Amino acid sequence: MARRHHESHLVERIGWLRAAVLGANDGIISTASLMLGVISAGAPARQALVAGVAGLVAGAMSMAAGEYVSVSSQSDTEKADRARERQELATSPESEAEELAQIYVKRGLDLELARTVSRQLMTTDALGAHLRDELGISAHTAARPIQAALTSALTFSVGAAAPLILTVLGPRPYLLPVLVMGSLIFLSALGLVGARIGGASLLVPTLRVTFWGALAMAVTTGIGALFGQVG
Description:
Blueprint: H1 14-40, H2 45-91, H3 93-106, H4 111-133, H5 145-169, H6 175-198, H7 203-230
């Protein structure tokens, strides 16, 4: 008896991976940038730490709410498309079968074979075939608002905790460079992990994450120093 072959595709991870990378990346960058701005303005480390904790809580809640609202909108659109397809299949199944066949013709099948495939798929799972091949909606890519919200909030908190730990453990005279270098190292590690899990090349995602993080921290440090001199 032949053994059943099972493949694990990277696209199955796209929903939670996007939210996880976005959350952790935003947590590190926003919290580190906030604290660097406070420190460069001349505030003591204790005030920077308070600002960082406040940023962690506010950011995690904001990420969760933002992801939930945006992904819920996507889910609502998918539900509307599903209802529309169900109605069209009930009222004009022949037209829908021909529409599906033409999709397969555009993908390289000859017309008769495309119509045969369309009829067979319409017999077994008409709605699923149209959602998948006409609209690009599948179980792997379907919107999951609660999963996205929880993942973003959790990973944001984990990311934001990194600069907080650096502030607590770092030597006070060198706190600013320690916070900058440590945060960039964390961002580089995040880029490597995200690329590894997503099956992408390691160099480009790592450089991309590190570059934008360094830019954000440089801008906020400069603004903090400027306002510190004005004060």
